[in-house]
């Protein structure tokens, strides 16, 4: 019995730990992986605004083009820059030692970021930069305190100030942000943009997911069909017994 209780507690502990470590509130990313337009836009934004620093080292351009239904001409015009060829991995030219000198940290590869964080976390992160003159790049982030990344989308989003609150012990903490000067996009347009980027990164973390769902549907349809045949056969076989 004791063993049973311990096993049950062990199984439950990740949930308990997660509940206990409730950090800042995460907004729902509300992405739709079946919306190809959203994924295509996300890929374009990523290549233009993020790939200067971040790579997607497990993703090839031509795989992405095939999955997201992007033809070769569009691929070359909108996603391939410099020397990059369709068969290449989506790596960038930044040397790790330069990254360390510029940002004080290694720039993480983002192929799996929505899996080690979550799509909601990435979405909230991209919306949570605020002005902080004490930081090297003048910005900080609510969900990633003392972040080493400059806010690359600030001219689109605008300038945000921190909203202060108190933690459980009564110490002041940043609990949210407030837009004080709008950038080139309206808040709705900015939300849509970071939703597209989050959707694209979620796809990149598990490209097979879309295919699996499609296959799953066929399997279910097949099983449904089999059920009907089996049922009719059963009726036929037992007809004379009853
Ligand atoms: C100028 C370089 C630069 C650009 C451009 C940039 N980033 Fe970053 N990013 C960084 C650095 C450096 C870090 C690591 C921060 C740290 O560890 O303190 C980071 C961290 C992150 C993280 C957190 C990863 C983790 O540790 O879980 C995410 C998510 C992210 N970036 C997404 C993006 C997206 C999306 C874009 C494009 C809109 C982008 N970044 C553009 C430099 C950059």
Description:
Its cofactor is heme c. It holds the Pfam family Cytochrom_C1. Keywords: Heme, Iron, Membrane, Metal-binding, Signal, Transmembrane, Transmembrane helix. This is Ubiquinol-cytochrome c reductase cytochrome c1 subunit. The chain has a single domain, classed as Cytochrome c-like domain (Cytochrome Bc1 Complex, Chain D, domain 2). Helix content is 51%, strand content 14%. 24% of the residues are buried. About 2% of the residues have low confidence. Helix 2 crosses helix 9 and helix 7 runs antiparallel to helix 9. The strands form three sheets. A two-stranded antiparallel ribbon has the order 1-2. Strands 3-4 form a two-stranded antiparallel ribbon. Strands 5-6 form a two-stranded antiparallel sheet. It contains ten helices and six strands, in the order H-H-E-H-H-E-H-H-H-E-E-H-E-E-H-H. By secondary structure, the chain is an alpha+beta fold. Heme C binds next to helix 2 and helix 7.
Write out the distinct hetero groups bound to the structure. Answer: heme C
Number of strands: 6
Give the number of helices.
10
CATH superfamily: Cytochrome c-like domain
The CATH C-level name is Mainly Alpha
CATH architecture: Orthogonal Bundle
Question: What is the end-to-end distance?
Answer: 48 Å
- Strand-residue proportion: 5-15%
Structural class: alpha+beta
Radius of gyration: 24 Å
Q: SSE order, as H and E?
A: HHEHHEHHHEEHEEHH
Number of domains: 1
Helix content: 40-55%
The dominant shape is extended
Looking at CATH, which topology would you report?
A: Cytochrome Bc1 Complex, Chain D, domain 2
């Amino acid at each position: 019995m004791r063993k049973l209780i311990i096993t049950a507690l062990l199984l439950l502990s990740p949930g308990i730990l997660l509940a206990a470590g409730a950090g800042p509130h995460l907004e729902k990313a509300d992405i739709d992986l079946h919306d190809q337009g959203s994924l295509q836009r996300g890929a374009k934004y990523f290549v233009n605004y993020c790939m200067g620093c971040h790579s997607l080292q497990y993703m090839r351009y031509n795989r992405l083009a095939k999955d997201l239904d992007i033809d070769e001409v569009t691929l070359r015009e909108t996603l391939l820059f410099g020397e990059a060829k369709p068969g290449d991995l989506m790596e960038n030219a930044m040397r790790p030692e330069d990254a360390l000198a510029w940002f004080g940290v290694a720039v993480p590869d983002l192929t799996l970021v929505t899996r080690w964080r979550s799509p909601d976390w990435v979405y909230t992160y991209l919306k949570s930069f605020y002005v902080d003159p004490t930081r090297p790049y003048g910005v900080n982030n609510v969900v990633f305190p003392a972040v080493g990344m400059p806010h690359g989308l600030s001219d689109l989003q605008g300038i945000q100030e921190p909203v202060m609150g108190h933690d459980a012990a009564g110490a002041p903490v940043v609990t949210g942000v407030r837009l004080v000067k709008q950038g080139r996009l309206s808040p709705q347009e900015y939300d849509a943009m970071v939703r597209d980027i989050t959707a694209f990164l979620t796809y990149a973390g598990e490209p097979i997911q879309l295919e699996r769902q499609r296959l799953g549907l066929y399997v279910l349809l097949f099983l449904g069909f089999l059920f009907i045949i089996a049922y009719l056969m059963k009726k036929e076989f037992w007809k004379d017994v009853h």
